């Protein structure tokens, strides 16, 4: 999830185990895609492709790269990167950013949604309105997490100004500061991105 990537370090917990199980499901799904027929255009309209080689070739040319990138265990790599030896490498921060590639799974969800869309009985206007608000909420959520992720790129001891510095100064006497409390950080980022998208932006 974007929240996990932006605000939490990789560690072995229930969420980590759940992600590993999801990775396994997507690996199985990737293997099954080499055997699932797809519609192809013929002189008589559309027909399902039955030839195994053509199915595999079609999948390799279309969604294979996206599906493959989404199953790379970046959570496990991120967990290994917590060691002191890995933190000394220049690419340490990049490893955490690479975990965002798992969001490519959303593209697979969009394919499933299109199949479901054909069976829906609501009007097009209602569907378009619901779809618009859903997309707006998802984009706001993602941008909020990307805004929080900028704090990962700059460590407090690097001497580079961060957007939470003034907030931390006002919260000097607070135990739970915005920059170190995930739920406060998320709400702050969500507020900023939502009013930027709907008004200033």
UniProtKB/TrEMBL annotation:
Residue ranges occupied by any Ion transport domain in the UniProt entry: 13-201
A Gene Ontology biological process term: regulation of membrane potential
Organism, scientific name: Zooxanthella nutricula
InterPro entries xrefs: Ion_trans_dom, K_chnl_volt-dep_EAG/ELK/ERG, KCNH_animal-type
GO molecular function: voltage-gated potassium channel activity
Topology versus the membrane: Multi-pass membrane protein
SUPFAM superfamilies xref list: Voltage-gated potassium channels
GO annotations of cellular component type: plasma membrane
Alphabetical UniProt keywords: Membrane, Transmembrane, Transmembrane helix
A Pfam family per the record: Ion_trans
Name of the molecule in the record: Ion transport domain-containing protein
Superkingdom of the source species: Eukaryota
